[in-house]
Amino acid sequence: MSHISQYFEEAKVIIEMLDLSMIENLVTEMVALRERLGRLFILGVGGSAANASHAVNDFRKICGIEAYAPTDNVSELTARINDEGWETVFSTWLKTSKANKNDAVLVLSVGGGNKQHNISVNIIDGLNEAKERGLKVFGIVGRDGGFTYEIGDCVVLIPTLTPHHVTPHAEAFQGMIWHSLVSHPMLQLNKTKW
Q1: Is the dihedral of CA 29, 30, 31, 33 positive or negative?
Q2: What is the C-alpha to C-alpha distance for residues 117 and 75, in angstroms, rounded to an integer?
């Protein structure tokens, strides 16, 4: 089997394995977030940061949810990294934003954060801050879901089929899943152009 055939065969299997009820729960949570006028803080690093930026646009423009990705503000992000360190960039952003129990965090991550292996510690620190402030924690994560899956209120796990395709499948399915959310009739307020 060629690489391309294998890759897309894996994608078909992942689709069949997704917990659709968890995605439906995420829709319900997002509707409740909008109704209580809460904000959505979307956290991601690497390719997931790019997905976070795109998702912010969709939740704001299509669903009317006030949403932000801390990684979109490069000046603040790099100043915080330079002055305070990478680990606290999300937690301090939530503090400055006065995040509260009406708000929620959505983590887009391949692994969800792993303190033991020092992976995505900034997400872990951000989630600890979110929990202290009473925010709901949502996620779309791959592998075993890591810290996000462990402490999250509503987390969609993207199944891992082969270790060498964890990142591409996780980041691709983040997009598929959040697009299923923003196009859901309960969430979508504004039509897309096409």
Answers
A1: positive
A2: 28
Structure tokens at 91: 């937690």
The pLDDT tens digits for 105-142 are: 999 999 999 999 999 999 999 999 999 999 999 999 99
Domain total of the chain? 1
Torsion 75-56-132-109 (CA) sign: negative
Q: Which helix (H) or strand (E) holds 40?
A: strand 40-43
User: Is 0.90 surpassed by the pTM of this model?
Assistant: yes
* CATH assignment at residue 52: 3.40.50.10490
CB within 8 Å of 80: residues ≥ 6 apart: 88, 89, 92, 93
Residue 80 lies in a domain: yes
75 phi/psi in degrees, rounded to 5:
-60, -50
